[in-house]
Amino acid sequence: MTNVDQLKELLTVNNITFKEIIKNETEFEKIHNDFSQTTLVVNDQGELWAVKLDNETQIAAMLNAISNFIQLKYLDLSYNNLENLPNELQKLTNLQTLNIAGNRLGSLPDWIQKLTNLQTLNTSYNNLGALPDWIQKLTNLQTLNIDGNNLGALPDGIQKLTNLRTLNIGRNNFQTLPPSLLPFLQKIHVPTYNVIIADVPKEVVTLGWAAIEQHYAEGDQKDLSLAELKVMIIGAGSSGKSCISKALEDNDYEHNDKEPSTVGIELREIKHTFQGVEWVLRMWDFGGQEAYAAAQTLFMTEQTLYIVVADGRTENRPDPYIHYINTFAPTSPIIIIINKIDENERADLNRPLYLDKRMYLDVHHGIIKFSCVENRKTHVDKLFKEIETVLLTKEYGLQVSWKPRWLAVKNDLSTVLTKEKYIDIRKYNEICDKHKLPQDVRETVRTLCKNRGEISSYKNEDSCPPIDCIMNPKWVTEGINYLFKLPHGGFYKTSNIYHHMEKQYSKDEATAILTMLKYENLAFEVPPSDNCPPGQFFIPALLQNEPSNFPQSHEYIEQIITDDRQPGKVMNNREFRFRYPFLHPIVKQTFMVKLYSVNNKINAYRNGVYWKHKGEGACVVMMEERDDLAFYLQGNSAKELQDVQTWIQNRMEDIHESKGIKNYELWHVFHTKDKNGNKRTKQYSNEDLHTFSEYRIEKIPLQGIQHGPSVTEILKDWTPPHNEKGQNTKGDTHNYYYAPHTEVRNSPNAKTNVGNQNMIDSQYSELQDFLNQFLATQNKSSENPVAEKEKIELTEKEIDDIREIIRTQTSQEGKKKFIDLITRYIPFVNAGVAGTNLLTAMINFSNAHPDMWTGVKAIFSFLAR
Asked: Please, which residues bridge with residue 333 across strands?
């Protein structure tokens, strides 16, 4: 008996499930993140190549056995509650990956230094108090993860790891970092979003290692406290945001029902004494109108406290605004206010859900009920207490101190901008020169001032001439408000804009505001053409509600998705949708600007655009439908439609990347007709199409259609990005954080798995009922070989192949249920009429249930081969 057989026998005796995969190393790299149970991976030579152990009660015996496999390259012992590692494992000198995350290790055993072939070492979420000096001997190390321990320092010897490419040091307790380490840390990828260094302000840390080095370069000057906080209050229109900010500003404020809603953006400075220090709260109050929503992103920064206001009368959910904040200012604290409880005292939210960091990462622990009418002072005091608690929370780092020269530049900049509405980079450099601020730190200080709400700024070195402007934030917000009072239409002569603004703004000032909107893709200066005279601006936020010179949008869309082709044919039209948790207006408006920059023959209105691609090509309608951005295409040929679809998808991907939007899905919608001429609609996500491609399903399955559209053609020329939820796109990767030692295991997909468990159970029950009904039907048939049911068995290899097909379909629990259910009905496959009936019934069932797992048909097709 081979060593591998002995190990398998040991696992079996202990009732531990395992999966043996005869694959090569390349194939293993594709699947190792999906291990869900004790797993053995054997290479082509029959050698044990990789192991994942997940059974803390019997792990000791298994580790002793595994230590005999000296050719082992991958060992995963994560989340097994281990307090130490057996010395026998030091024999595994060929190990390339060692994952010991999520245990209870207080230190690393010295023998790990003998594993000089290690390329990846994951020690995250243990109790390590120090990183040993011998870590420098692991010279082949490329990835080191020490996140979530109790480290207070990094050893200097870590610089000798010349092959290191990724180092995760977050969620530790660093007191300081030696200056000698900083150049090394700048050379490799070291995420800083969750790093706390006691002697460096958190807002400096989030700017990266260059800013940290600049902070240390200022020497031992005593840092000066900065008692200022930027607060942004957002929510739906008429939810009472302004009443809350006014109540915080004025202790004697009395609410007036006839008080008009905020139009645009208002800035207030609120004084509040906290721990004997007078704090300045810079409150940014945003109106709820859509025209101003996209402009909010101009001023959203991290190191800011966000207050999300939900209307207690309508009990509207704050989810859209939470998604919005997590996209444009990730890691910022959020307080939720349920306002106007005087009109609905029972109004509340599902508090456990909103305070669960697995679901809503950055919501602070307080959800406050509020009223500006009844017990107002009590509610104001409660909100101030909550703000104070946020200030005390170390992980947010909102209590900061700056180096004296940095603070001096900030104060002078603030003074200058009270007199001048905006300045260029030359004036800023003069202020920096006055205080002898080094050149390499000036951009850092400018960013810090912007995060504090002290300035608004934009910079575009690619423009001609280059733009580099610093503005008074109150002045620029008032300017945007004033500009957005133009009559609705969306297209304006530049001269008319200047005329509209001349009472309050000079031509140069109006140009500065327009330039800022251009830079952020909120406006577009239309180039002159045969159809458009020179000197025009396109501002999507000010478009009219409905198009003027083509049929109403719903009528035109109905025309596109209606076709007089014969039943059984796919309509020669296309519909696809980008689906978001919350569709922010900036996505739609930016697409309009990008579209108009290449095609000025568009007909745009508030919620959509109609145009012909490339002159007389395909007709396209883009529509906002709830949280979908839907595209309807009509053309003369499949190739023409595919070209247009690829062009649109690539433009959209540019927008998603530039705005840092990761949390979305692409869905394809297909329209067909049945034999009676009735329209049928089927939707597949882009993930579904890639699954079809993986399983070599050439045509998209559509009910009643023998030859559906080509999967390859639709996926051609466009590869969707890795859609990782909760990603911080402003610098470092920022996955949703899950507490260690729990079922979700820090998996990026765990949030989805937890949230979809009810759906999984529902689908499982639905499929089970269907199969039971089929079995009952077949039992009544003389053609059913039920008598042979017990004689038909699957081989271990066949079961593993089924598991591979199911692997990507759903959560771990759902996979186990699904495998068990499918294998119960295996006897019917390849069993004459019964098997044929089952396969046909399954295909029809899957067509009728668009939410069913896409692997159902693939599995039964595999079994029927």
From this structure: none
| Residues 325-375 pLDDT 10s | 888 887 788 999 999 888 888 888 877 777 766 455 555 667 899 998 888
Cβ within 8 Å of residue 426, ≥6 positions away? none
Gap between the Cα atoms of 198 and 195, Å rounded:
10
Q: Structure tokens of 596?
A: 């108009």
Contact 90, 111 (CB under 8 A): yes
Per-residue pLDDT tens digits for 121-179: 999 999 999 999 999 999 999 999 999 899 999 998 899 999 999 999 988 989 898 88
DSSP string, 369-405: E--SSSSHHHHHHHHHHHHHHHHH-GGG--SEEE-HH
Residue 103 in contact with residue 84, Cβ under 8 Å?
Answer: no
695 backbone φψ class: left, alpha, beta (φ>0; ψ -120 to 50): alpha
Distance CA 456, CA 450 (A): 6
Strands 19-22 and 39-42: parallel
For the question of whether the overall pTM of this predicted structure is more than 0.90, the answer is: no
**372 Cα distance to chain centroid:** 35
Contact by Cβ (8 Å): 531, 601? yes
**20, 399, 436: which is closest to 219 by C-alpha?**
436
d(CA 279, CA 24) in angstroms, rounded, equals 62
Helix (H, G, I), strand (E, B) or coil at 699: strand
Length of the chain: 865
- Whether the bond between 183 and the residue before it is cis, its omega within 30 degrees of 0, is no
| Integer Cα distance of 843 and 770 in angstroms | 12
